[in-house]
Amino acid sequence: MEVRFDPGQRGGSPTDGRLLGIDFGGTKMAVGVADLQGRLLARERVPTYAEKGAVQALDRALELAAKLVGQVGGPVLAAGVASPGVIRPDGIDLAPNVPGWDRLRLADAVRDRLGVAVVPVANDLNAAALAELRLGALRDADPGLVVGLGTGVAAAVTVGGRVIAGRHGAAGEIGYAPTGGFPGTMLESVFSGRALDQLAGSLDIPGGAAGLGAHAATPGPARDALLARVDELARHLATCCLLLDPRRVVLVGGVAGSDLIRGLLAERLATVLPHPPELVLSSFADDAALLGAVTLAREAVPAGS
Hints:
Number of strands: 15
Strand content: 15-25%
Radius of gyration: 19 Å
Mean pLDDT: 92
């Protein structure tokens, strides 16, 4: 469990109002309380325990949110929520990693448990892209592409200062792209944190994706296996870049932290693209989606509040 408080950033009275951000992930969940400028005053991260199902994860996140709000003080004017999948009012599509997640109504749950009236909910990578637009690497880059390499794999497109959700809210769900022929298998089953963990296990390498990356730094079976997976991801990212022609590509998520993987991707994109974009690692580490959730809340606060 990670706990972090930032008392040095506190400004104004607790009665000035607060913002709440909740980031639900397949592996970890993060909750943060911020002032009305979006500066985090307190944050905490806990495991999701995905195998135990959606209800316990939601309950524990809301309990944590109530605790942090109580510690910081002040009324919560809006709560932003970042979640895997495509968000609908009555459920969530394309979020298979936590059993039962598709049946949740996240906005209703936050309103009912925490008494917050304004609760915008967005896809977690779209929330991360919003944070990059407002606070991070895409403030001066248009168009932009954010690629999430975590438990799963996905992308988010930014154009003209906006995150493009698509007709069904499913823009950027490249994890469903076919590989190895048509229909083949999904990209997420080939390249994602979970897929690389499984690959490491099949090679008897301890430490999951991180251990695989360490072994792949030198020639051998681990490197050969990882290169094949990176090549598949790079082909899909090249297509995304040819379609969008982004100025900058921002990588977020635990797998993106691998210097080896980032270097291999940059090398491949530079080889095949006529106008290769900048490829950078998000400066927010694990907080991009949480900061995006807080930004959602900040931008949803009614005028005059």
